[in-house]
Design goal:
about 600 residues; alpha+beta; Beta-galactosidase, Chain A, domain 5; Glycosyltransferase; 2 domains; four-stranded antiparallel β-sheet; 28 strands; about 35% helix; globular; GH15-like; 6hp_glycosidase-like_sf; 6-hairpin_glycosidase_sf; hydrolase activity, hydrolyzing O-glycosyl compounds; Glucoamylase (Glucan-1,4-alpha-glucosidase), GH15 family
């Protein structure tokens, strides 16, 4: 049992999670980072949900409409069959902009027989902190709270409103709908209008998906992952979220519960790099504008993360009235990590800037802004690369000289040199090459540990860390270099557990890690593939794909023993790394090898 058996729907403004039984158990309106209106995932009693209930005689199946973000839950009992088609509207309108209202549509499609269901409609506004009251009005059902903060939502439906609110059994004889939204509608919806919304949204997603290239292998996995990454992008500013949820624990009952509804420069830049590879350049252009807007002053250091509307303060608080996912407290809102210093973000951002300029050089706006950012990043890296930091995993205790951070400082200078060549700014290159060489020498002198025969987590350490596997993919070292091969082997021997990887095994601020970090397993698989162990890599990859939920979605972590999904969901990190692996395999491996690896 994965226990994170949810589908995600969304429209690049907000999102909702729907259980495999057709219950909306998480949604925040009007935007991703707003307070929740349904949060049963974080408290089964208090959190609130919107459920379609049938008797136990019904079989329930769930799938996405192919190449779209429309989720179809089918309820069948013999000849009595109906579907719930869940989506959040998104489509282009006449003026060229996108219509993406803060609303969820549940289109109830009658198939056959006389199916019956009940509705459990129980919104709990403002993270269920106060009392939410529901009232039946002439044209809609409204729910409101006015404790610490006033908030209200609206439900429109083709069904009898009293039956919906009271949970009375409804017999379905024709198509119907629910439209749940943050705003009162100016024009009353009808079944016909809702059907048109569904068709328009379907066409949008089909058109979007056609831009994703077709590969020799794993096309369905690549497409579903790319749609998921798109669902985690915020159209208004270009921000990309790490995940759609808060406080889903890395380990059940543990305190490693964080709010991921923000834009980490690292995560987002990695997503953008992959999306650009897939040809979705508009997402990349919006993200670069997001970055440009964040850096008004030439000497302003980047934070590691920002709010999706470019907020710089992300104060962390706990919601003590909520029990947490499976009793895992605390539930956190905000994220104190925004104050941390992590030197790797400059290299990751410079890598994206270089990639965009290299790939779309004839179609890049704001070139002068990007050159200004490039010079600023070099200045900051040159000044600070020798300093310790918190690292990619955001250790909250003392700073260290993390190998990954140093490598990404090298990447920052390396890509800046390449950008300078694109812009023909050759007067900078000689000076920057000296910085690049100095950083590279420092890493080889201090990060390599002969006693463990590997590059280690930090200078002077004997601990291994999966993040150093990215040395090769960022171009710091060749895949066939003896030191890289030795590092991959050492990480396999130390951090690999039944094909799943620990990030690291040393104690951190909260004790010893006890679950597998999904992106690390993908990094490891990629590294095996690069050093020539292709069949082993394929075997691990297909095994890992089998740990996704029923819709092919991944969270942040996987439990080593039970293989259940853990951590925030769906996780951008996991899906971007899945795509990278799948593309690498598809470029070189034959279908016969894939079939052999699955036997």
């Amino acid at each position: 049992m994965n226990n994170l058996d949810y589908g995600i729907i969304g429209n690049c403004r907000s999102a909702a999670l729907i259980s495999k039984n057709g219950a909306i158990e998480w949604s925040c309106l009007p935007t991703f980072d707003s307070s929740s209106v349904f949060a049963k995932i974080l408290d089964e009693k208090k959190g609130g949900s919107f459920e379609i209930e049938t008797t136990n005689n019904y079989t329930i199946t769930q799938e996405y409409k192919l190449h779209t973000a429309i989720l179809i839950t089918t309820f069948s009992e013999g000849n009595n069959v109906f579907e719930v088609r869940d989506f959040m509207p998104r489509y282009r309108v006449e003026d060229g902009t996108y219509y993406s209202p803060p609303e969820i549509i549940r289109y109830i499609r009658y198939i056959s027989g006389t199916p019956k269901f009940k509705v459990r409609y129980n919104p709990k506004l403002e993270y269920a902190a106060g009392v939410t009251k529901t009232y039946i009005k002439k044209d809609f059902i409204t729910s409101l709270t006015h404790g610490e903060k006033f908030d209200t939502v609206f439900l429109y439906t083709s069904f009898i409103k009293e039956d919906v609110v009271n949970g009375t059994e409804i017999e379905l004889t024709e198509d119907g709908y629910f439209l749940f939204g943050y705003n009162e509608k100016i024009f009353a919806p009808t079944v016909e209008k809702i059907y048109l919304e569904q068709q328009s949204t379907k066409v949008y997603w089909l058109n979007w998906s056609t831009k994703t290239p077709s590969y020799n292998l794993y096309n369905n996995e690549i497409n579903r992952s790319s749609i998921t990454l798109k669902l985690l992008s915020y159209d208004k500013t270009g921000a990309v979220l790490a995940a759609a949820t808060t406080s889903l624990p890395e380990t059940i009952g543990d305190v490693r519960n964080w709010d991921y509804r923000f834009c980490w420069i690292r995560d987002a830049s990695m997503v953008i790099k992959v999306m650009s590879e897939l040809g979705h350049k508009n997402v990349a252009k919006r993200y670069l504008q997001f970055i440009i807007d964040l850096i008004p002053d030439k000497d302003e250091k980047l934070q590691i993360m920002y709010g999706i509307n470019k907020e710089k303060r992300l104060t962390e608080i706990t919601l003590d009235h909520l029990e947490g996912y499976k009793g895992s407290k605390p539930v956190r809102v905000g994220n104190a990590a925004y104050k941390q210093k992590q030197n790797d973000i400059y290299g990751i951002l410079m890598d994206v800037i270089y990639q965009q300029l290299n790939k779309f050089s004839n179609d890049i706006e704001n070139g002068e802004d990007l050159w200004g950012i490039t010079k600023g990043i070099v200045w900051i890296v040159d000044k600070h690369w020798r300093e310790a930091d918190k690292g990619i995993w955001e250790f909250r205790a003392e700073d260290r000289h993390f190998t990954f951070s140093k490598v990404l400082c090298w990447v920052a200078i390396d890509r800046a040199i390449k950008v300078a060549r694109i812009f023909n700014k050759t007067h900078k290159i000689e000076k920057w090459i000296k910085i690049e060489e100095e950083i590279k020498k420092d890493i080889h002198d201090n990060a390599w540990n002969a006693s463990v025969n590997a590059f280690t987590q930090s200078y002077g350490s004997t601990y291994l860390d999966a993040s150093v596997l990215l040395m090769e993919s960022y171009g710091f070292i060749e895949a066939k270099h003896p030191k890289f091969i030795a590092t991959v082997k050492a990480i396999e021997a130390t951090l690999c557990n039944d094909g799943l990887l620990y990030r690291y095994k040393n104690e951190d601020d909260f004790g010893l890690p006890s679950s597998s970090f999904t992106i690390c397993t993908f990094w490891f698989i990629n590294s095996l593939f690069k050093i020539g162990e292709e069949e082993k890599a394929l075997t691990y990859f297909n095994k890992l794909l089998g740990y996704s939920n029923h819709l092919g979605l991944f969270s942040e972590d996987i439990d080593f023993k039970t293989k259940r999904l853990l951590g925030n969901f769906p996780q951008a990190y996991s899906h971007l790394a899945l795509i990278e692996c799948a593309i690498n395999f598809s470029s070189k491996v034959t279908d016969e090898k894939v079939l052999e690896s699955m036997r």
